[in-house]
Fold this sequence. Notes:
This protein has one helix and 17 strands. It is 10% helix and 41% strand.
Amino acid sequence: xxxxxxxxxxxxxxxxxxxxxxxxxxxxxxxxxxxxxxxxxxxxxxxxxxxxxxxxxxxxxxxxxxxxxxxxxxxxxxxxxxxxxxxxxxxxxxxxxxxxxxxxxxxxxxxxxxxxxxxxxxxxxxxxxxxxxxxxxxxxxxxxxxxxxxxxxxxxxxxxxxxxxxxxxxxxxxxxxxxxxxxxxxxxxxxxxxxxxxxxxxxxxxxxxxxxxxxxxxxxxxxxxxxxxxxxxxxxxxxxxxxxxxxxxxxxxxxxxxxxx
Length: 261
């Protein structure tokens, strides 16, 4: 009984701190629900074994990493990372060539993908470098999805969706198990590579996440102790190489949790 009470108190403290931080940010983060000028894009480097890149729209650099000297770093946005500190970048609506270009001195500014996307005025998008980086051709796969961000219908609920970015995995279904009450919620249905599910409401809490093939009860990829805060919108992306069994390898299957708002 004492252990249960201590765990409950710990959870309450964690959620209270997260809610305080979320409330503190709300004064800054109300912009997604205001009328937008132009489109917004978030940039992900999820191409397995891909080098660090700077992201471009046509010839306009959209992301860069500053070094300690104040000049642009040659590391770029590394694999598994999101450009601009997880912020959306503003872009004029229209058709754009979206590329990740090598940030290192060798092959500097070489585009490793070729993707053209039509971006609508007033909408949000996520651009993913994906698949497996080919070291011979120096290319990676890529795709764009829309982020349909709208004001939450219930601020006691978090809204979560799933994006499948593992090129060598079959369709996956994401599940979220509340670590306090033990309830498990399917975050949408089965999603194929480059696919995205709809947002699913879950109560504020700490969750263990796991993704499975549709014909299996075995977790293909999992992550524990992920906090979802009511009134916020999240995208969970599965990335990596599904054949890797190491728990520490950089390219292992992994569930990335990103806040859209």
